[in-house]
Amino acid sequence: MIKNILQIPYVIDNATFHNSIKDELLSYIDKSDSETKQQTDDYYSDNIYKLDWFKNTDFERPWFKFFQPHFQNQIIKMINELGFDSYFLVATWYQQYLNKSTHGWHTHSDNYTGVYYLELPEDTPKTQIVNPANQKDIINLDIKEGDFVLFPSFIIHRAPINKSNNRKTIISFDINIDKIKPDVLGVLND
Q1: Calpha distance 180→186 (Å, rounded)
Q2: SS3 content of the chain, % helix, strand, coil (to 5)
Q3: Which residues pair with 4 in a beta bridge?
Q4: What is the distance between the alpha carbons of residues 161 and 36, in angstroms, rounded to a whole number?
Q5: Do the Cβ atoms of 133 and 5 come closer than 8 Å?
Q6: Sorting pLDDT into bands at 50, 70 and 90, what band is 7?
Q7: H-assigned helices in the chain
Q8: Of 123, 74, 124, nearest to 97 (Cα)?
Q9: DSSP H or E run through 85
Q10: Tens of pLDDT along 86-117?
Q11: Phi/psi of residue 61, each to 5°?
């Protein structure tokens, strides 16, 4: 029996740097090594136009080296909201979706997963997550281009099929967060 005594926090925040780096970051991605992912079986339905997941632990990729200082400041801000002081980046990769692209329901293995919406035209689909306390409850995230979202990795989520003719580009990442903020520890020690 599922008991709903906990609320599971997730954070959405708009990146103030988005407009100043978008075009250059997309240019790096356009020039990078990539693959296509198409998989359909009993569990997954994936049709991703372009991604570099196969290099997700290579933090020397040119697009990530350009993006990393912005990324780091943004993630610190978001994990601070959750009551933590530091994080360890486990993996990061980009994914691009064209018409009929999708990424089926899935989870990740580290303690937090995130997405940066680098290109999200209004007619492209937004990430959906499953409420862990009620798996019949699908939550459509209220996001827009330039937003970051950070949520626990065990939460089931997907990128619904892109019925638009516009391209959607995201940067996904997995992190482990630790070191509770001292002000939170003060409350817990009372």
Answers
A1: 10
A2: 25, 40, 40
A3: none
A4: 16
A5: no
A6: confident
A7: 18-31, 62-81, 182-188
A8: 124
A9: strand 84-97
A10: 999 999 999 999 999 989 888 898 899 999 99
A11: -60, 135
